[in-house]
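ok so I'm stuck.
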Amino acid sequence: MMAADPPAADQGAADQARAEGLVTRFHHPVTAFARFVSVQGTALPPPFAELLDHASHMTVVMERFYGGPVSVEVLAVHDDDGGSAAGRAWYEREILLHSSGGRIVQHGIVRIDLERVSAQVSDEIRTRRAPLGRVLIAAGMLLEVQRVGLLRVDIGPQLQAILGPEGKEGMPARETFGRVAEIAVDGVPAVELLEIVAPGPLPKVLR
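replied:
not stuck anymore, here's the structure
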């Protein structure tokens, strides 16, 4: 039992570092945006476990949860100048997802290696018209959501300003939950994600 504890602790620290690394692409300092604490799925209250602890695309889960399509609002983009790693160019963007009623339901930061997708898919992503998950699924590529790390998110002033005022019910005003994840395209890691569920009262538990 003791031998298993350090890897779990190391994984939690790695997940927090992954989240912070994505935040630094758009916000400084990280602590002004949010504080991330790695958690297990059993620590997530409903319906956050159903929303986050899975290997599906968040777009699909959010649309099922809210009973209709979600739309994307792109807040910021790094295109071509988003840095590189191991010789790969990255397209990066910060987004909000809105329910059909206009409510903010999710914040996200994504880095994608556009060389792993077709020129048509790359062009569609750059139009900013649809959530990334919907674009990738519609392209019919072999996709695998992996390396999911669950997080408690203590909201900082920068993230609070993005999410706007909250209702009086539901989660405490400065806390919510999210995850970091990776998407492999045809078996090759190509997308890095930070996905944060907007705080406030949630309409139902997934069925």
